[in-house]
Amino acid sequence: MVSFTVRFRFTPEDHARVEDVLRALTTATRREPGCVSYVPHFVEGEPDAVVIYEQYRDERALEAHRASEHFQQYAIGGLYQMMKDRSVENLTAIA
Fold first, then answer.
1. Class of the 2-87 domain?
2. 42-68-64-90 Cα dihedral, nearest 10 degrees
3. What confidence score (pLDDT) does residue 41 get?
4. Whole-angstrom Cα distance, residue 15 to residue 60?
5. How far from the centroid of its chain's Cα atoms is residue 47's Cα?
6. Residue 68: which of 34, 37, 22 has the closest Cα?
7. Three-state secondary structure call for residue 14
8. DSSP secondary structure letters along 22-86
9. Burial annotation 18-51 (CB, 10 A radius, 16+ → b, else e)
10. Residue 95: what pLDDT?
11. What is the mean pLDDT of each run of 10 residues along the chain (95 residues)?
12. Which of 10, 2, 94 minimizes the C-alpha distance to 51?
């Protein structure tokens, strides 16, 4: 299992657009056979921040996600263009 969070910031003016792109990306990602969990969140108290919790069956499933047409369209062509900064935290499950 591959688990991680992605945190990014954007300008408050892009809030509605970020939400629309995340909804489309989430719908498509959850249909991937190797996706276990994909849950985007706006961060309470930080109107310009998003955290996405992601889990994939294995590295191959994660690679397929990143190579997918919807990732290229919504993440690379959408979210990445609005991000002010981005960080990733790789996670190791305890149980």
1. alpha beta
2. -20
3. 98
4. 32
5. 17
6. 34
7. helix
8. HHHHHHHHHTSTTEEEEEEEEETTEEEEEEEEEEESSHHHHHHHHHSHHIIIIIIIIIHHHEEEE
9. beebbeebbebbeebebbeebebeeeeeeebbbb
10. 87
11. 98 96 98 98 96 98 98 98 97 92
12. 10
φ, ψ of residue 4 in degrees (nearest 5)? -165, 165
Reading the block at residue 66, the tokens are 């990143």
The three-state secondary structure class of 21 is helix
Question: How high is the pLDDT of residue 48?
Answer: 95
Q: Where are the domains of the chain?
A: 2-87
Polymer length of the chain = 95
